Amino acid sequence: MTKVIKSIVIVGGGSAGWITASILASRYKARIKTNELNITLCESPNIPTIGVGEGTWPTMASTLREIGVSETEFLRECDATFKQGSKFVGWDNDQGKGFYYHPFDDLKHSVDGVYADYWLNNETSVPFSKVYSIQHELCEGALAPKTISDAEYQSSANYGYHLDAGLFSKFLHQHCVSKLGVNHLFAEVNQVNKDGEGNISSVTFDNGNIVEGDLFIDCTGFKSLLLGDALGVSFKPVNDVLFADTALATQVNYSDDEHPIASCTKSTAQDAGWIWDIGLPTRRGVGHVFSSKHTTKEKAHADLLEYIKNTGGSTENLNVREIAFSVGHREKFWHKNCVAVGMSAGFLEPLEASALVLIELSAMMIAEQLPATSNVMDIAAQRFNDKFTYRWGRAIDFLKLHYILSHRTTPFWQDNKKVESVPQRLQNLMELWKNKVPNGHDFEATGELFQATSYQFVLYGSRFRTQPLFTLEPFIGDYVQNRIENTRQVEQQLVNKLPTNRELLNKVYKYGFSKI
Amino acid sequence: MTKTTIELLDSIQHKSLRIDTTLVDVPHNHINAANVSVTELATLNHEYPIFITKNPHTGKFLFSAILGIHSGQNLYIQEGKWKANYLPLDVLRKPFQAMLEKEDSFSGGRIAIDVSSPVIGTQKGELLFDDEGKPTAYLQRIQNTFGQLMGSIKATEDVLDGLYKHDLLEAVTLEFDLGNDNVEKMNGLYAINKKVLSSLTGVALEECHKAGLLEVCHLVMSSGAHVQKLIQWAREVSSS
User: Domain count of chain B?
Assistant: First the structure.
């Protein structure tokens, strides 16, 4: 029986649930107003949100603007700060020397490869990111991407955020319920009910409530209660590619109120993994992601404390939480009338902050492909699965790239370089890039997660060097030289003009940004 | 950058200082915008293009009389004279400035002077204090100027807040075609959004009327005619 899709049920709160609700409800505001669509979010009252600091991509700024959130309120209420990229420290060698940046800068001519060609021919002594991106220096100075005179979501440099995920969920919850007409109820899932065709017809909650729906969105986290448990879609682990399976997460207070707030996520390589370091206004979120097969929890814990001490933090009264995880994703993400978003769809170590952006992209695609009637559900599902199977695959490739470029020698890093652990597609790309720089033609899908620019930052930030076989045409050299000089001028102006992250946040708390 | 030496005004320390009020072409006037309070709009709109800008330290809106196209350029100064009948109070007060107790509290402010200004000497110009150490008529006028400036701060803020809240402001970029393919752009300016203004109705319209916003909108809009004058002056400067 064909029915019109009028009712969407999101099971699970947290970032995944509330981001999805926000994006869907703002996209279908008119239909919700006329009661032609209703969105209900049901969440367990008992699940503690995992409150580690999280990083977003620049996509989050446009997402927040589109769902109608004030950037000032967001920054004030979610303990958010400005993020301009990632800094990889000590990934190359056992001594932990050196670093490289993967900034958010969207370099105009890196997609055609001209910048990389020129750099390989001429300037290999100055880091790639320092030559082409203003954000190398901005991050070194812990500077903000904008000033208090810039309107909400406007800036001089591309940026995302660091935020407290727990506060962020609360903030979006409030926005969804008060402004976007999303229904909300607190209850524990008791049972998922299916109809004769294997679709989910309703969910029974512990308080006896039965919530029916036409489309169900599974945001129940690792448990994957709907897509995994009820519909039996299996989990496809990728622990043969990415070995980390445990995280030790904690919060480190700043030594004083004036402590700089970093403008990038710092990822520092360790013997069997790496440590994230995310600057929030009052504290840092720090955590050690490692492979339990390659080190012990005791050693990982000791390494974490050592890192905190070395970066000027106090290790007194630390509350360290252990999180075990399985890297991988569901065989498919949309099955029957159920689509999974967030950790119920899959999980990757937070090396490139892919968690929140995958949630945003999933919710946007659900909004774009939202089937009008139940008989075309499978078409939407097929499109979604094709797109996200591709996206997860490319995200895995890109994370793996960071590991295979290292010259570290402990077993964890050696195992990472074993050819059988490297996805075939990435092997092919590495072969290709021996004599040709990555360009846009290597990444032709629409909505690629990581473009050629990102690959260039990581490849050439590491010691990998493409050996170009042909000389660069002189006019291209002149052109790039001119762009580099221009970049230096812009960089100098911005270094003089931009406040530090902390200075700007203090002004945001006091004055706020205006909307224009 | 001009070096400044700010001293709180003191009847003993500054007893013999004189201000040469005839000097106009001096560093502190080499500015391309001057702050304007709401009470000055009705006078200044006859001679200056007035736009809204932002205070770079707070991001809050300000009324500004535009004096030149690029930083440091004051087209109103020509051959040592200021080519207008009325000057913004923010220009008239110089080389004096208010020293405030706190960054944005205007209570208990005191007047200070930039003693490095070339308009200050001991030979020529207006004395600040008489033999008994009392303010001269000149200094009283300056004090009065500060009184007016301070007294209108709240009203100016309220009007700008009102314009913002009613979506009556919009970001604009001014393009100055100086001839010979030379087009200079000026960013960071806001003007009255005419579309929003003309579509105000009901309660919003009444609110804007009562708060004096409609009058302010028309004053600011009518001042736009002076942009053409600036372009003309700028062309003369660039061709000379």
Answer: 1
**Helices vs strands, H then E, count in chain A:** 16, 22
pLDDT score for B106: 47
The alpha carbon torsion through B70, B74, B76, B77 (nearest 10 deg) reads -150
What residues of chain B lie within 8 A of the CB of A151, using their CB? 171
For A476-495, the pLDDT digits (tens) are 999 999 999 999 999 999 99
The confidence score (pLDDT) of residue A52 equals: 63
Q: Please report the pLDDT score of residue B102 as a whole number.
A: 56
Say if the Cβ atoms of B61 and A514 lie within 8 Å.
yes
Task: State how far the Cα of B216 lies from the Cα of B38, in Å rounded to an integer.
Answer: 8
Inform me whether the pLDDT recorded for B105 exceeds 70: no
Q: Which of B59, B170, B190 sits opposite A511 (nearest CB)?
A: B59
The pair of structure tokens assigned to A507 is 């002004």
Q: Does the beta-carbon distance from A512 to B59 stay under 8 Å?
A: yes
Q: Quick one: which of A471, A443, A423, A412 has its CA closest to A238?
A: A423
CATH C-level class of A7-79+161-238+327-393: alpha beta
| Complex ipTM tops 0.95 | no
Interface touch A147/B59, C-beta < 8 Å: yes
The answer to whether A51 touches A285, Cβ cutoff 8 Å, is: no
Contacts of A507 in chain B (CB under 8 A): 57-59
Q: Enter the pTM of the model.
A: 0.93
Distance CA(B187)–CA(B55), nearest Å, equals 14
Distance, CA of A354 to CA of B107 (rounded, Å): 51
Neighboring chain A residues of B170 at a CB cutoff of 8 Å: 516
Q: Is residue B1 part of a domain?
A: no
Contact A147 B56 (CB under 8 A): yes
- Give the three-state DSSP class for B87: coil
| Strand stretches in A91-180, DSSP E | 99-103, 160-164
Question: With an 8 Å Cβ cutoff, are B56 and A516 in contact?
Answer: no
Sheet holding B126-127, edge to edge: B120-121, B18-19, B126-127
Tell me which chain B residue has its CA closest to the CA of residue A508: B58
Of A150, A511, A516, the CB nearest to B60: A511
Chain-chain contact of B171 with A513 (C-beta, under 8 angstroms) = no
State whether B58 and A513 contact (CB < 8 Å): no
Pairing between β-strand A338-340 and β-strand A215-218 as defined by DSSP bridges: parallel
Q: Is B135 helix (H, G, I), strand (E, B) or coil?
A: strand
Residue A262 has a CB neighbour count (10 Å cut-off) of 21
Phi/psi at A121 (5° precision): -80, -25
Q: Does residue B239 register a pLDDT over 80?
A: no
Burial of B55: CB neighbours in 10 Å, binned 0-12, 13-18, 19+: middle
pLDDT digits (tens, 9 = 90+) for B8-61: 999 999 999 999 999 999 999 999 999 999 999 999 999 999 999 999 999 999
Full domain range(s) for residue B120: 6-239
Q: Does B55 touch chain A (CB under 8 A)?
A: yes
Cα–Cα distances in angstroms (integers) from residue A306 to residues A88, A252, A270, A316, in the given order: 18, 13, 11, 12
The packing angle between helices A114-122 and A452-461, to 10°, is 20
Residue B88 — φ and ψ, nearest 5°? -60, 140
Give the dihedral sign, CA B150/B155/B158/B162: negative
